[in-house]
Amino acid sequence: MSWFQRIKTGITTSTKEKKETPEGLWYKCPSCKKLTPSNEHAQNFYVCSDCDYHEKIGSVEYFELLFDSNEFVELNPNLSSADPLNFTDTKKYTDRLVDSQNKTNLTDALRSAHGLVGGEDLVIACMDFAFIGGSMGSVVGEKIARAIDYCLEKRIPLMIISKSGGARMMEAAFSLMQMAKTSAKLSLMAEAKIPYISFLTDPTTGGVTASYAMLGDLNIAEPKALIGFAGPRVVKETIGKDLPKGFQTSEFVLEHGFLDKIVNRKDLKVQLTQLLKMFKN
Questions:
Q1: Where are the domains of the chain?
Q2: Alpha helix locations (H) across 37-137?
Q3: Distance between terminal CA atoms of the chain?
Q4: CA-CA distance, 114 to 75, in Å (whole number)?
Q5: Secondary structure of residue 237 in the 3-state scheme
Q6: What are residue 159's phi and psi, to 5 degrees?
Q7: Kind of pairing between the strands at 158-164 and 120-127
């Protein structure tokens, strides 16, 4: 006698409802391809625990990482670019701005804020690569200029976190003028003997490298960041030679004297606090 008896024929197991893994639960490192739970990756400051690859992050993550208790006062949050040239490429510049603002919840490619880092006052101006490639337009230059004015008035050190593809082509000469504008403003910081720390992240290129990114009292960078003016392909075509291994990485730039230090993201706040206390004393 059997233990079970089928009382109805044709019984099938339904497979219509397939359980999908929710998106965003796992992070796949683009360098070593290792899978890591997204929450663990975030807790490790968006750095791969296996190969130390530093994932690109924006102002939201840097402010949370650096400012004590993530408390800060944002400076000039509502500045937004105009379209002085009525520029159009594959789409109108005004449409591109609106699209980027909607996708990123940012007004432009840089945010600036004042808060405490390890108990020390600091103004941080941080670029966001997600907004039109972190390109430097009029608003980026104006926000940096106003942040410097704020530092001069309050006598507070400044840190600029660079992450940019360079000048914003849609603003042409208006964008290029930000190089001179920000450099002139930083000279006032130097005259007032107020510290300016430049932090270069992946990538820092073009007019940003040729201006404020390389003018710090201290120039520091994240590991393996791309740092340069023109891209490797353009440089190779210009000089007609193969480029050295690791060309334009932060390690190469440090070796050749253009950086003072490379700092791992997990050590950034501690070392930044030590620097601020050192400058203060």
A1: 23-55, 57-280
A2: 38-43, 59-66, 93-104
A3: 91
A4: 7
A5: helix
A6: -130, 130
A7: parallel
- Helix residue ranges per DSSP H, the chain: 38-43, 59-66, 93-104, 138-154, 172-191, 206-209, 232-239, 250-255, 268-280
- Say if CB 114 and CB 148 are below 8 A apart: no
What's the pLDDT tens digit per position in 25-47?
999 999 999 999 999 999 999 99
Contact predicate 159/122, CB 8 Å: yes
CATH code: domain 57-280 is: 3.90.226.10
Q: Which of 124, 97, 96, 123 is nearest to 108 (CA)?
A: 97
Query: And the tokens for 19?
Result: 């359980």
Close Cβ partners of 142 (under 8 Å, ≥ 6 residues apart): 76, 79, 178
Contact 97, 80 (CB under 8 A): yes
Q: Which residues of the chain have pLDDT under 70?
A: 1-23
Residues in the chain: 281
CA atoms within 13 A on the CB side of 173: 2
In the numeric block, which tokens belong to residue 59? 């102002």
pLDDT digits (tens, 9 = 90+) for 110-149: 999 999 999 999 999 999 999 999 999 999 999 999 999 9
SS3 of 276, please? helix
Instruction: Enter the tokens of residue 177.
Output: 């003028």
Q: CA 184 to CA 145: how far, in whole Å?
A: 9
